[in-house]
Amino acid sequence: MDSGFKNKLSVEGLKYSINTKVIVDGVSLDIEEGSFVGLVGPNGCGKSTLLKNIYRVYAPTCGAVYIDGKSVHKMTSKEAALEMSVMQQENNIEFDMNVFDMVMLGRFAHQKMFHNDMHRESEIVRAALREVGMEGYEERSFMSLSGGEKQRTLVARALVQKTKLIILDEPTNHLDIGYQYQIMNILKSQDMTVFASIHDLNIAANYCDRIILMKDGKIIDFGTPEEMFVTPKIKGLFGVDTQIKTNSVTGKPNIIFLPTI
Predict the structure, then answer these.
(1) Taking a C-beta distance cutoff of 8 angstroms, is the pair 245, 232 a contact?
(2) Vertex 106: Cα angle to 91 and 161 (nearest 5)
(3) d(CA 220, CA 233)
(4) What is the CA radius of gyration of the chain?
(5) What distance in Å separates the CA atoms of residue 238 and residue 15, rounded to the nearest whole number?
(6) How confident is the model at residue 97 (pLDDT cuts 50, 70, 90)?
(7) Residue 158 — φ and ψ, nearest 5°?
(8) How far apart are CA 175 and CA 146, in angstroms?
(9) Partners of 198 in the beta sheet?
(10) Is 237 strand, coil or helix?
(11) At what angle do helices 147-159 and 118-131 cross, to 10 degrees?
């Protein structure tokens, strides 16, 4: 059903400080429904902190976050889990469980006491594990997995929530090149709005509809990959020289990083 809101996610004047240090400084942004938006910036610029304010790990010092016009920070945990799924960069768990149960945690907001079809719930989990290449790992201990296997398991957990918005902090972190593109292809194929911080500029260029550039806690620019990934902007953001070519197959920018000699 059409919610009536063009913007799936809206952030208005969000500021987050620790003591007197401003980490996120008055950020406002809109993510259109159905779009795939990448958040790009140097380490320490506030990307993860901004995302944590959006998915409620932190409460903003001031400002607000809305999904379909509803305030995220006024939702219950269950309400928020039905609106957005999240894959964090750090996932420290206090006790171990197997891969199947780890992914099943993503279904908790959909479960009603004594009324769930557990066969259907299990099929949803197994389908997600197949999609991320983790079929056959169901009984493996999560803690025994490699970094890349853990990452793919957590993507599956986010997918089984069946939300229309997914927030991801460095989703291809710890993955080898094959799985990086597999996961991005999976995310791109979903019928959902995707907002992800991405460290690999070429991956961001290939998969994102829009790019948001962040530096020193502020949004400094936004636009298409073609508009954002140009030599002066990359130099200003990361301090590195680049050459930009157009990929002859995809038509997307191909960023070549030049060594300093």
Answers:
(1) no
(2) 120
(3) 10
(4) 19
(5) 23
(6) very high
(7) -65, -40
(8) 10
(9) none
(10) helix
(11) 130
| Average pLDDT for 54-61 | 96
Tokens 């911080």 label which residue?
197
**Average pLDDT along the chain:** 92
Share of the chain above pLDDT 90, in %: 84
What count of residues does the chain have? 261
Helix (H, G, I), strand (E, B) or coil at 174: coil
Q: Cβ distance 169 to 87 under 8 Å? A: yes
Instruction: Convert 175-205 to b/e letters by CB count within 10 Å (16 or more is b).
Output: beeebbebbbebbeebebbbbbbbebbbbbb
Identify the CA nearest to 239 among candidates 75, 95, 42, 35: 42
State the residue for tokens 């992914």.
Answer: 103
Structure tokens at 2: 């059409």
Two tokens, residue 197: 């911080």
The DSSP element (H or E) to which 220 belongs, if any, is: strand 218-223
3-state secondary structure 72-140: HHHCCHHHHHHHCEEECCCCCCCCCCEHHHHHHHHHHHHCCCCCCCHHHHHHHHHHHHHHCCCCCCCCC
Alpha-carbon gap, residue 125 to 103, rounded angstroms: 6
Instruction: Give 233's pLDDT tier (boundaries 50, 70, 90).
Output: very high
Q: Which residues pair with 31 in a beta bridge?
A: 9
Phi, psi of 65 (to 5 degrees): -125, 135
Residue 136: how many CB atoms within 10 A of its CB?
10
